[in-house]
From TrEMBL:
Gene: LRRC57
InterPro entries per UniProt: Leu-rich_rpt, Leu-rich_rpt_typical-subtyp, LRR_dom_sf, LRR_domain-containing, LRR_R13L4/SHOC2-like
Matches recorded under PROSITE patterns: LRR
Keywords: Leucine-rich repeat, Repeat
Highest taxon above the source species: Eukaryota
Protein name in the entry: Leucine-rich repeat-containing protein 57
Cleavable signal peptide: none
SUPFAM superfamilies xrefs: L domain-like
Gene3D superfamilies attached to this UniProt entry: Ribonuclease Inhibitor
Residue span(s) of domain Disease resistance R13L4/SHOC-2-like LRR: 56-132
Organism: Characodon lateralis
Length: 238
């Protein structure tokens, strides 16, 4: 990509606060963006070949949305935690294995998309994200959902297409959790904590494609309470 094209992109971004440069074969985060740290609110660099986010990403203090889907990132710099206004962090389709603990400092974060990475352990330390609505961890290699999940404020957690065989009953203590997606995992019926059905806020519990027939859920204690929540939610959006 020529310098003149990048220059015109930068000029536009200075006015709009939006920098979008997708599928251009970029191998690194454009250094030139540093000139716009005071302006940029949205950056989308999806579909490139970026392997590393520089520490200087922490300088974009006005940033509300950072999207780097389908790149080659293997991790994030600790400086990501400086982005106190960030509401959306979308990193689907990279090679990320774990998150730095500073992600827990993104106090404004509402959406965290990490689908299609190489995460094998459920990320801890996200309970401090009080505004979090959606946590998407689908298409990773996570094998268990630990007790610490109860700290999460998320309204929806998507864990479809992992390798989960262990699901902590503490998930039923998530205070705002309404949608829990666990399709195409390795769960047995005996691995489903009954408290999710009887005691949680969950009104959509999606478990197709595990090691039991979904209709067997009806045999579990608490299924009727779950169906009451499910039906009430459906009526609300009908």
């Amino acid at each position: 990509m020529g310098n003149s094209a990048l220059k015109s992109h930068l000029e536009t971004s200075q006015k709009t606060g939006v920098f979008q440069l997708t599928a251009k074969g970029l191998q690194e985060f454009p250094e030139e963006l540093q000139r716009l740290t005071a302006n940029l609110r949205t950056v989308d660099l999806s579909g490139n070949k970026i392997e590393l986010l520089p520490a200087s990403v922490g300088n974009f203090l006005q940033l509300k949305s950072l999207t780097l889907n389908s790149n080659k990132l293997t991790g994030l710099p600790v400086e990501i935690g400086k982005l106190k206004k960030l509401e959306t962090l979308s990193l689907n389709g990279n090679q990320i294995q774990q998150l730095p603990p500073t992600v827990g400092q993104l106090k404004a974060l509402r959406t965290l998309n990490l689908a299609g990475n190489q995460i094998t352990e459920f990320p801890l330390g996200l309970g401090t994200l009080r505004q979090l609505n959606l946590l998407d961890l689908s298409r990773n290699g996570i094998q268990s959902v630990p007790a610490e999940v109860s700290d999460l404020q998320a309204i929806e957690i998507n864990l479809n297409q992992n390798q989960i065989s262990v699901l902590s009953a503490e998930v039923s203590r998530c205070p705002r959790l309404k949608v829990l997606r666990l399709e195409e995992n390795c769960l047995e019926l005996s691995s489903i904590p009954q408290s999710i059905l009887s005691e949680s806020q969950v009104s959509l519990f999606s478990v197709e494609g595990n090691l039991f027939e979904v209709k067997k859920l009806r045999e579990l204690e608490g299924y009727e309470q779950y169906m009451e929540r499910f039906t009430a939610t459906k009526k609300k959006f009908a």
